[in-house]
Amino acid sequence: MPDTDISENTRRILARVDSKKAILDARRPLPAEAVRRIHEEFRLAHTYNSNAIEGNTLSQNETKLVIEEGITIGGKPLKDHLEATGNAMAFDRVAELSRSFNTIDHVVIQELHEMVTRGLQMDSGRYRTVNVRIAGAAKSPPDFSKVPRLMDGLISDINRSVAHPLMTSARLHHGLVQIHPFSDGNGRVARLLANLFLMSHGYPPAVLRTEGRKAYYRCLARADVGDIEPLAVFVARALDESLALYLATFGGADALMPLSELARGTPYSQEYLSLRARQGLLGAVKIGSEWHSSKRALKDYIGAHGRS
Questions:
Q1: What is the distance between the alpha carbons of residues 219 and 230, in angstroms, rounded to a whole number?
Q2: What angle do CA 78, 63, 289 make, to 5 degrees?
Q3: What average pLDDT score do residues 282-291 get?
Q4: What single-letter DSSP state applies at residue 291?
């Protein structure tokens, strides 16, 4: 699956991500304390957002208390607590696996599902043996009898892929969601598995935020009809944010600052830079309600798009 027909816009986004990754790679190994702190930040962000996309009602602060302090949140369902602890445990396992990861296989996929759904499903860690329907979906997932063969095909395609890792991870992500091999928990496993693939290729995890849930589902719908690029671009933008957060730990030209501050002494207004950030043209991270970027990201934007 080579990248022979992706758009120029997608190529630019992939190039921007790889440029940041090259800077990060040149600075490895990172200090152990920085690695530990960043892992905890991504563990929380991934767990909260991945669960929230599926309807979990814990806030990010509540999720932090559950997975880091073991505190029970009054008035919240047991299911939400189990989803938080299970997803966090699976994220730790993904980080561990990525350090010596070679190929995707059934064992890894089912192991992640068992962790994510522990205490929640009778068939945790096993492919479904019943047919299921997805509320609001245009078509039903394939018959359960076809799941093993379809998963064999997906695993084979991914392990043989020569495409850019981000494009391959998007195909893996969508492929698992489309096959829907488990009775529940498929979305959470797909996001973990795609991150395992990315992290094993030297990228940080991509956190798909719950605020972008509708756009995320639109991208999956486009992939259903054969257009994988929107999903790849959606993930690439999340990955771009993750790389910016990693690089910001070094300060200097990579230090993140509010766009209002970054715009000073430039031909740009804060509003213009915010627009470019929302369009995905300027590498930026939304912290709270405010966009942040770096001097390096702005320089890269000017190099790619000029001062218009």
A1: 5
A2: 140
A3: 87
A4: E
Amino acid at position 75, single letter? G
Average of per-residue pLDDT across 204-212: 96
Distance CA 154, CA 125 (A): 18
pLDDT tens-digit series, residues 83-104: 999 999 999 999 999 998 778 9
Q: What are phi and psi of 94, to 5 degrees?
A: -60, -45
State residue 101 phi and psi, 5-degree precision: -85, 135
Structurally, what CATH architecture does the domain formed by 31-246 represent?
A: Orthogonal Bundle (1.10)
Q: Which residue has the tokens 């991500």?
A: 17
Q: How confident is the model at residue 181 (pLDDT cuts 50, 70, 90)?
A: very high
- With contact defined as beta carbons under 8 Å apart, do 27 and 8 qualify? no
Q: 187: how many CB neighbours lie within 10 A of its CB?
A: 22
Give bridge partners of residue 288 from the DSSP assignment.
Answer: none
125 vs 187: CA distance, rounded Å: 14
Q: Two tokens at 245?
A: 């957060």
C-alpha distance from residue 235 to each of 59, 67, 155, 174, 302 (Å): 23, 25, 20, 12, 23
- Unique residue bearing structure tokens 């929380």: 44
Backbone angles phi, psi at 125, to 5 degrees: 85, 5
Out of 44-48, 131-135, 239-243, least confident range: 131-135
Q: What residue ranges do the domains of the chain occupy?
A: 31-246
Give the pair of three-digit tokens for residue 99: 């350090």
- State the first-to-last Cα distance of the chain, in angstroms, to the nearest integer: 36
Q: Just list the catalytic residues.
A: 180
The whole model's pTM is what? 0.91
Residue 120 phi/psi, 5-degree rounding, is -115, -25
Coil, strand or helix at 81: helix
Q: Quick: pLDDT tens for 7-51.
A: 988 998 899 899 999 999 999 888 889 889 999 999 999 999 999
Cα gap 306→123, rounded to integer Å: 55
Q: Using CA atoms, how far apart are residues 15 and 9, in angstroms rounded to an integer?
A: 10
